[in-house]
Design brief:
homodimer; about 350 residues; Rossmann fold; 3 domains; 6-stranded parallel sheet; 12 strands; DNA-binding; SBP_2_dom (chains A, B); LacI family DNA-binding transcriptional regulator (chains A, B)
Chain lengths: ~350, ~350
DNA sequence: TTGTAAGCGTTATCAG
DNA sequence: CTGATAACGCTTACAA
């Protein structure tokens, strides 16, 4: 049913129908109600093609994400955004990437300034630099630029949508997997590998979740130790080796994608330790394949990127409702199912 | 860059450009090459809105899937298809559902006849009735109706695309999970619960995969027994109870969504048996939540349905390339991550 | 307050 | 072989 047909039914011109559809201009109460009734009755749905053609405009979304080498974690959400551009670009959604160094607060601040200058129609934000990201969100709010947060939540709820993971539950899940793989009186290490001072909320919440599970799994009598390794020390690898070589370790949890560093040591030293970590990046893939890493927990980073842009398509172009909070599933990945988790990205 | 602009550059009318774009009508070699060169140079991409508006046609896809009660497995792929209709319907994709009784070959044959009569632009087929489904595929091929197979593969490769699971690997994964949860010399049962005579390939392949893993995990000394339960016997539940109550069972694998029947028995009789099955249907959900079922393996049935229709959108409407085979990940679902696997379907 | 008409980019038809 | 033109359904500016 087209506007024209509706106009005929209502004995008005299509201009009048348009006015009630868009609530612009004045329409007499009587005709307005008549048209509304017909609209309701025929369940009018505008033709997206005609609408898109007539409007003929496009939107720019800024993606503010960490830069990354090939095979690193943050490469993946970006690939998801790029795949979305490939699918949705034809509908008038464009993306500008702004890459910052996640170990350099200054670079983040510089990029945020650039984004504000661009005045995009939307922003996709990876809030890894927590404090500054929160400040940036206030500025976006002030400029009335809608933004979507990916990966992990930050303080405040003035965002358009959040797409990411539940880090606490991720830690609980890791604990479940590790606890059920080690002896009842085993010794478990949590090893955090970091190379900056930032308060990393994701890491912190995973560790809290891990401990939470350990406390509730009281039928076991496990020994738990928490260890930090600082990559800025030149001898951090030797240090890590020493830690892993201690006697009687049954399991190790690395609450980040850096679990492959531990895997490498376990492999080289032929240690027999159950190992659980996060994220199916290439370096972890090979150790999963060989069984050195027992489980990796994934949170569909490629999907996160894709959905973030898709949400802007829905919001800006299709004027659809979107979910404010999307927690993607925590995938348990192990040797036997990893082959189907590799994101199939073929960007030509 | 529009056709009009290209026509200007080439000193021809836009009708001529259109002819070379669509390879229809005759165009002199010289002008054709000139236009082609410009098209290449400016990387011409047609405006999807204008195209959709001008073509103004819509496509009908027939979905041939098992009927189901609420909470049963086959409800979910249908919900995925419906969600896709909600998103893609506006672009001119319509779906007609044809539900058959998966325990009644006749009903399947009747539905296939109805589908052929409709002459749809595409078919989504759940090939649970293997033999007849294969025959139907030949008929579709003869009528040149493209079809997508969901869930599990059947013989032949004349389909447009397949979207489903690797059942063999699903069985291997189940074995891995069960083996790592039971004692080294434990006793494991595979219990198949069926209510028809059909040769169910999915079930068979899962069992084969399970055994394959058991053979390769030779460091354990496990006892394996394979048991069939026929739901057409009036006393099948009592029978199942007896089986589960045998002495010294450490683990049970039910290679289907019917694992909740075993869970119910384990719960009622307070047995201590590790339990692994398939599919996050409601009945399994509650037993996972309480920890009676240890792991369920899922294959994203909602996604399967969604992607099947999305593929037809890509193929019929957007004229995009589509993957011939999509194996969706085998998700490991357990108490600690199940809350994020529930498909969030709100069909208003 | 209401009607009219141009224009969005593509497709398809018809006349030259 | 080529050019001109109507049509698709909607938006928007302008005229009545």
């Amino acid at each position: 049913m087209t506007i024209k047909e509706i106009a005929q039914r209502a004995n008005v011109s299509l201009g009048t129908v348009d006015r009630v559809l868009h609530k612009r201009g004045k329409v007499s109460r009587k005709t307005k109600e008549r048209i509304l009734a017909i609209l309701e009755e025929v369940d009018y749905k505008p033709n997206v093609y005609a609408r898109g053609l007539a409007l003929n405009k496009s939107f720019v979304v800024a993606a503010l994400v960490p830069d990354s080498e090939e095979g690193e974690y943050w490469e993946v959400p970006s690939l998801g955004i790029k795949r979305a551009v490939k699918n949705l670009g034809q509908f008038g959604i464009k993306v500008n990437f702004f890459y910052f160094d996640q170990n350099n607060v200054e670079s983040f601040i510089e990029r945020t300034a650039e984004v504000l200058e661009l005045e995009p129609d939307g922003v996709i934000l990876a809030p890894v630099i927590n404090f500054e990201a929160t400040k940036f969100c206030f500025k976006l709010k002030a400029k009335e630029i809608p933004f979507t947060i990916i990966d992990s939540k930050i303080h405040g709820d003035n965002y358009l949508s959040f797409i990411g993971q539940d880090s606490f539950q991720s830690g609980r899940l890791a604990a479940k997997l590790l606890v059920s793989s080690v002896p009842k009186q085993g010794k478990i290490f949590i090893i955090s590998i970091k190379n900056n001072e930032n308060h990393n909320r994701t890491l912190q919440q995973r560790i809290e979740g891990f401990k939470d599970f350990m406390l509730s799994a009281s039928n076991q009598d496990l020994l738990l130790e928490e260890i930090n390794v600082d990559q800025r020390n030149s001898d951090w690898k030797i240090n890590l080796e020493k830690i892993c070589s201690r006697k009687n370790i049954d399991g190790i949890y690395v609450p980040s994608s850096k679990v492959h560093f531990v895997a490498e040591i376990i492999f080289n030293k032929k240690l027999s330790i159950k190992l659980v970590g996060n994220d199916l990046i290439n370096n972890n893939f090979k150790y999963l394949e060989s069984g050195i890493i027992d489980y990796v927990i994934g949170q569909r980073p490629e999907n996160q990127g894709y959905m973030a842009l898709e949400n802007f398509y829905k919001f800006l172009v299709a004027k659809q409702e979107i979910s404010k909070n999307v927690f993607l599933p925590l995938d348990i990945i192990t040797k036997e199912n990893l082959m189907y988790y590799k994101p199939q990205i073929e960007l030509s």
